[in-house]
Amino acid sequence: MALLCTNGIECIDVDIKNHPEPKELERELLTAIRNRLGLDLYNKLVINRTPSGGLHIVYKSLIEEGGAKLAGRADSSTPAKPLYYIETRGKGNYILIPPSNGYTSKRNDIGNIPTITAEARHAIISICKSLNTYDNPKHHVKHD
Predict the structure, then answer these.
(1) Are 64 and 91 in contact (CB under 8 A)?
(2) DSSP-based three-state secondary structure for 92
(3) If you count Cβ atoms within 10 Å of the first and of the last residue's Cβ in the chain, which end, N or C, has fewer?
(4) Phi then psi dihedrals of residue 101, to 5 deg
(5) pLDDT at 134 over 70
(6) What is the pTM of this model?
(7) What distance in Å separates the CA atoms of residue 5 and residue 89, rounded to the nearest whole number?
(8) Is the pLDDT of residue 137 over 80?
(9) Tell me: the pLDDT tens digits for 45-101?
């Protein structure tokens, strides 16, 4: 089953298999979001597990943008091309959701996607960008 990112729906797509320390990335990201947004709002976010072990963090926002690459690392086999491990899926993109094969709900139901403020969205995006380790002057991930 697919969910179209429209009407403010946005997803933080965390592809932990592209990170050298997947469990650490997940822990650091979720802890930072919880600490920055507060427990009440954090507990309302929809979080699904993907078949590869990654996460989809889903919310609605009044800010609608297309997908963006937020954090990655150098790939030892092709150093000039990064392996991205955090991206957004925004306006016009889609994500697979439970009950699609391999997708499970970690927190909350996709039918109750919370609307967050522009400030909360900015905080989430900033946290994700702060986890970037890719540094190539010819191809920088945009930062605030």
Answers:
(1) yes
(2) coil
(3) C
(4) -55, 120
(5) yes
(6) 0.90
(7) 7
(8) no
(9) 999 999 999 999 999 999 999 999 999 998 877 767 889 999 999 999 999 999 999
Torsion of CA 17, 42, 144, 135, to 10 degrees: -20
The whole-angstrom separation of Cα 100 and Cα 55 is 14
State yes or no: pLDDT of 143 exceeds 60: no
The token pair at 8 is 């403010």
Q: Pull the structure tokens for residue 43.
A: 């507990």
How many C-alpha atoms does 74 have within 13 Å on its Cβ side? 10
Q: Give me 127's structure tokens.
A: 């946290």
- Give me the count of residues in the chain: 144
Pull the structure tokens for residue 113: 């996607």
Contact 45, 39 (CB under 8 A): no
With beta carbons less than 8 A apart as the criterion, state whether 91 and 65 touch.
yes
Q: How many Å apart are CA 127 and CA 135, to the nearest integer? A: 17
